[in-house]
Amino acid sequence: MTRINPLKPSERMKIPRQEATEQSPSKRSINFLEVSYGFDEERAIVESTRCLECKEPYCTDGCPVGIDIRGFIQLVLQKDYVAAVNKIREANYLPAICGRVCPQESQCEAMCVLGKKLTPVAIGKLERFVADYELQHDLFRPPAIAEKRHESVAIVGSGPAGLTCAAELAQMGYGVTIFEALHAIGGVLRYGIPEFRLPKEILDLETERIKALGVKIYTNFVVGRTATVDELFDEWGFSAMFLGTGAGTPTFVGIPGESLSGVYSANEFLTRVNLMGAYKFPQNDTPIKIGKAVGVIGGGNTAMDAVRTAKRLGAEKAYLIYRRSREEMPARDEEIHHAEQEGIEFLLLTNPLRIIPDGDNWVAGLECQRMELGEPDDSGRRRPVPLQGSEFVVELQTVIEAIGQKPNPVIQATTPGLSTTKRGTVVIDEQQGTSRPGIFAGGDLSRGGATVILAMKDGKNAARAIHEYLTKSALKQG
Predict the structure, then answer these.
(1) Residue 266 and residue 358 in one domain
(2) pLDDT of 217-257, one tens digit each?
(3) What 3 state SS string does the chain have?
(4) 261 and 337, same structural domain?
């Protein structure tokens, strides 16, 4: 293995992990501008020198899509930033997005050898740096496309799974068409992730690069309503299909008072703000009404996005209500840290019992109960146990429930022979294949709710499986 870094490993280990510059908490908590400014060139170079260039790059093993992390960091050290981002793009066609929203701390960085005794290399920040450098200097050039194949593939849904599958197949030479139900592409990347974490400008640029591969996109096209899956095969002439419609149907706690005015699902709340621009009202025509005190129920990234968004919309009190402790929170450490900096109040070991109305059928408060942690449950986390007689009321005018979502049932209901689970997810095999030959699925539609990068992994695996399926089909016909 060629080593690029002239420093000895012992010298590299003395270099502290570099930190990205950020907006101050007092400023960012009242605007929707991106929180982190990322690395400048100097910090990127210094951080890259920390890489031990391990013979066995365990960091790549920790990456769901298998980025050659050691390779791209070596290119950063050589200041060949375009080659570095293209090295990433060999495995991940959305580097500017993943550099911002991937949970690197529990994936690639968790496997970093340097992190066993010290702090791991800031792989995510380096990924963002090279992607942003390419963007800022207008250095992107579409990759060469393989020889065109005569088969065409339909991609249903334009979230991270669909976009990745489309990019992979287009580079293999297939004709690819994406069908998106909403008026803008991006799926959960657009409607679920706030502007302060993933600017729409970045999402738009990344999706334009997928269009540059020759991918066709239809928006406002609801597969199962505008046309069924079978009609896409029979009348449109597609040879295979990937279903990546996500999990956009909210679930609720199931407590009294959920029908009151002032109660939102996180899905509706974030969609109004992120997709429809409610934070710009009245410039945009979608309003959103919240009170002075907002409570968000949940402990995941969606809950964190919702409560930080509520703060930016003007909530004087923004509470995160979670029935376990901070250690059990599934949200990213960075998001929890940012929320704490921004003045979000955490009501931990707290379980909601009922939403209390005022005289006009609006939310007036939330009755809660204190909890303690018992033995681990099926998830491996300690089960919350109620403390009798510990009930109390939090005065609120808005309650947002962020406890998960499930797939929209339209495709499942209109596609005969498509096997699903009791939760409404589509059943897949190890190759992302469904019970219908030629139909593959992935992302939240099959997982029921997961990270962006795991959805991308599914899209990538599905593209590989579709290529194998179509190649075998062509051999049989030939």
Answers:
(1) yes
(2) 999 999 999 999 999 999 999 999 999 999 989 999 999 99
(3) CCCCCCCCHHHHCCCCCCCCEECCHHHHCCCCCCCEEECCHHHHHHHHHCCCCCCCCHHHHCCCCCCCHHHHHHHHHCCCHHHHHHHHHCCCCCHHHHHHHCCHHHCCHHHCHHHHCCCCCCHHHHHHHHHHHHHHCCCCCCCCCCCCCCCEEEEECCCHHHHHHHHHHHHCCCEEEEECCCCCCCCHHHHCCCCCCCCHHHHHHHHHHHHCCCCEEECCCCECCCECHHHHHHCCCCCEEEECCCCCEECCCCCCCCCCECEEEHHHHHHHHHHCCHHHCCCCCCCCCCCCEEEEECCCHHHHHHHHHHHHCCCCEEEEECCCCHHHCCCCHHHHHHHHHCCCEEECCEEEEEEEECCCCEEEEEEEEEEEEEEECCCCCEEEEECCCCCEEEECCEEEECCCEECCCHHHHHCCCCCECCCCCECCCCCCECCCCCEEECCHHHHCCCCHHHHHHHHHHHHHHHHHHHHHHHHHHC
(4) yes
